[in-house]
Amino acid sequence: MQNSKTYTQQQPNSVLNLLKYALPLMLVTMFAFSPASKASDVATDTVANQKEATYRINAIQRDLTSIRQQTLQSNPGLVEQAKAFEAAYQEKAKEVGYNPDEFISQAQEIQNKVRNAETSEEEREALIKEFAAAKRQLAEQRESILSDATLMAMQEKLQADTFAAMKTSNPETENLMKELNTLLESLQ
């Protein structure tokens, strides 16, 4: 399993920025592509600017992914380091019972039952409480993984080493990261 932090973060603060801006970015994207009715010129310009920023963010992410893949192909040591991190992550996830796939299946099952017209109001309330408890448990398990100092140190080293190798492989990497961070901050 590829940890989303490992995949997206190339600098230590990038993951925090990505997590911090992921929801607003998703909302901006949703609103940028929804039809605006009777919007003023200012609102139209804002939507257009947000749309342009979203397109640029996607383009930068594609470029960085490509640079990262090329870097990993030419640096087998990084691949081994990534595999060691992934194995440690999987071990910790198993240790704490973290299984997002199981949660998603459970959530879909609950959703289907809640939508079923034959489900009573009391059953719906119980299902919603069950979902909330499962969601809380998953969050606690995830937090347990993220609080593992050894695992996080491995991740930070992998990210720093990968970023350094990417900069060596393609000097444009640092500029792309700076531009990405600036665009993400502008969408707050």
Task: Summarize it.
It comes from Photobacterium lutimaris. This protein is an all-alpha fold. It is 85% helix and 0% strand.
Folded structure, characterized:
The protein has eight helices and no strands. It has 188 residues and is mostly helical. The protein has one domain. The longest helix is centred in the N-terminal third of the chain and has 34 residues, at 41-74. Residues 110-144 form a coiled coil. It comes from Photobacterium lutimaris. This is DUF4168 domain-containing protein.
Considering the chains and any ligands shown, give keywords for the structure.
188 residues, mainly alpha, 8 helices, 0% strand, disordered N terminus
Radius of gyration: 21 Å
Which overall shape is indicated by the principal axes computed on the Cα atoms?
Answer: flat
- Helix/strand-derived category reads mainly alpha
Residue stretches low in confidence (pLDDT < 50, at least 5 long) are 1-39
Number-wise, the strands total 0
The first-to-last residue Cα distance is 30 Å
Element order: H for helix, E for strand: HHHHHHHH
Q: Give the fraction of residues assigned to helices.
A: over 70%
Strand content: under 5%
Number of helical stretches of at least 4 residues: 8
Number of domains: 1
What does the largest sheet look like?
Answer: none
Oligomer: single chain
How much is the average pLDDT? 81
